[in-house]
Design goal:
Blueprint (H helix, E strand, L loop, with lengths): L27 H12 L1 H7 L1 H8 L3 H23 L8 H9 L1 H20 L1 H17 L5 H17 L2 H28 L13 H4 L4 H11 L16 H31 L4 H7 L4 H9 L2 H36 L17 H20 L4 H34 L6 H24 L1 H5 L3 H28 L1 H6 L18
Length: 498
């Protein structure tokens, strides 16, 4: 008589595994879309590049090239480490592995400040950009607050959906916003610019000018968020290759594209006239150029695409924040409830909902105080975020050589020592430049600028007592912080170590 094994009762069956982020969802181009969209190329060019030209003259394109080269050097060590550190915490995981847990916990808090600051402030820009667009196209006026709150709901829904939905949406929006700038470039090149095409922008005499320090500060800020490629490691196809490729693709595209478009704007007005044109109407410089060389319809399209550019940037930062929050919740530093992943969309939807509520709270506080959505909500919230991300880049660069001193590897001294140390020196210089020209970013008083700059070290230093508290009261959480995961997602190769 055959022996049968009774089926386990439902209560005795193993619980189904909790849903996780969907591995293998993103390729190199998808991740690059997230990163470049976060930088908002059209908004940066139309809104900030005229100020760079006004302050630095016709040598401004070189400032964007130099910033791109600096960040490409940073990417060498950064992406090398990405092949060895597989944790989901990105910046703070790298910093922890190189500089220790206490510094890493401070970096985790700084990452939350940086990415939240870069996103939430932009809701003010969404309101003012929509106001400008409605006024330009219809002569009407819309209040900024309902627009910003509606944007919060739209972005919250985008983050709730699957990551491949976000990648497809950002691909469309990014193609549109870069396409209008390419259209401007074609028009200017076809007509030979205002007085013939000139390479004077790249002459040393126009680059080595006092205003170039301010241009460099603007240029480094324009790349903010490019390093977020590593945040998507768990959802990448073949992350050991996809993440580095996406990082180089993003920083290379941004550096070359920014420099090219700024040079095109200079050609549109001519070397002798562009600084005066930028100073007279910085907000209208690109609209005037595209009206002259393409047509009024293109200027109307550019107004609309600036709004979609801002939305794309918000969605990219929202997704990055959600994944940082998810990683910290899984670590046990944030409440475990934030670690829940949607069973169908495989998105960190609880973290996304909290992020949306936080954004709404900040927007409503600024509105209740009667603050200007651009001068105060955008600039005062963005500035600490931008500084925080620059400091994280510096700490990550310092962490690379210290990490590789302690592990056996075959990466070579150029990638593990020379590049990251060089990047650390250049990034420290960039931070000094940004802080020295903080008034250009905020338009605020010295007192306000001092407070905004002080937020970054204060948040970082808050991680030190938090680390001590975790070590004393939750030692298991402290010991697991930024630890290497047990396994890479299916299909991912192991890091190349001895």
């Amino acid at each position: 008589m055959p022996v049968t094994t009774p089926s386990p009762r439902p209560s005795e069956s193993a619980a189904p595994p909790a849903p996780t982020l969907r591995p293998g969802s993103l390729g190199t181009t998808d991740i690059a879309f997230f990163v470049v969209s976060a930088a908002a190329p059209l908004t940066v060019m139309a809104g900030v590049a005229p100020l760079a030209i006004m302050l630095g003259g016709i040598g401004a394109p070189v400032g964007y090239l130099l910033a791109g080269i600096t960040l490409a050097v940073f990417a060498v060590g950064f992406t090398t480490m990405s092949r060895h550190v597989r944790g989901a915490g990105a910046f703070y995981a790298y910093i922890t592995r190189g500089l220790g847990r206490r510094v890493g916990i401070g970096a985790a808090l700084l990452a939350l400040l940086g990415y939240n600051g870069m996103e939430i402030g932009v809701y003010g820009l969404l309101g003012t950009a929509t106001q400008d667009t409605v006024h330009a196209l219809a002569g009407g006026h819309v209040p900024w607050l309902p627009v910003s709150l509606a944007g919060l709901l739209v972005i919250g829904y985008g983050g709730y959906r699957s990551i491949d939905f976000g990648a497809r949406l950002l691909g469309v929006l990014l193609t549109a916003e870069t396409g209008i700038l390419v259209l401007l470039a074609v028009g200017v090149l076809a007509r030979g610019g205002a007085h013939g095409l000139s390479a004077a922008s790249f002459a040393p005499g126009h680059v080595l000018v006092p205003g170039m320090a301010a241009v460099l500060a603007f240029a480094f800020a324009a790349f903010t968020g490019f390093e977020s490629t590593v945040i998507y490691r768990r959802e990448a196809r073949d992350p050991a290759r996809t993440v580095p490729r996406a990082t180089y693709l993003a920083v290379g595209f941004l550096g070359l594209f920014y420099a090219f478009v700024v040079w095109i704007a200079i050609q549109a007005f001519g070397d002798a006239q562009v600084v005066r044109a930028a100073g007279g109407d910085p907000a209208g410089l690109f609209f005037s150029a595209i009206t002259t060389y393409v047509g009024g319809w293109a200027a109307d399209a550019m107004h609309v695409l600036i709004v979609t550019s801002v939305l794309a940037s918000l969605l990219a930062f929202h997704n990055a924040i959600n994944r940082y929050g998810l990683a910290l919740a899984e670590e046990g530093v944030l409440p475990r409830a934030l670690a829940r992943v949607h069973p169908r969309h495989r998105s960190p939807y609880v973290t996304g909902a909290v992020q949306t509520v936080l954004g709404a709270a900040v927007v409503l506080v600024f509105a209740a105080a009667g603050a200007d959505p651009y001068q105060q909500l955008l600039l005062w919230v963005n500035t600490p975020g931008m500084l925080g991300l620059l400091v994280l880049q510096l700490l990550a660069a310092l962490a690379v050589p210290l990490y590789f001193r302690r592990v056996r590897h075959r990466e070579g001294v150029l990638r593990t020592v020379v590049a990251p140390v060089t990047a650390a020196v250049l990034l420290a210089t960039a931070i000094v430049l940004v802080v020295a020209h903080l008034d250009l970013f905020t338009g605020a008083s010295t007192t306000v600028n001092t407070v905004l700059a002080a937020v970054v070290p204060l948040v970082f230093l808050a991680g030190l007592p938090l680390a001590r508290w975790l070590r004393r009261n939750r030692p298991a959480v402290y010991e697991r912080f930024a630890a290497e995961p047990a396994a890479e997602p299916a299909g991912a190769p192991a890091p190349a170590t001895l």
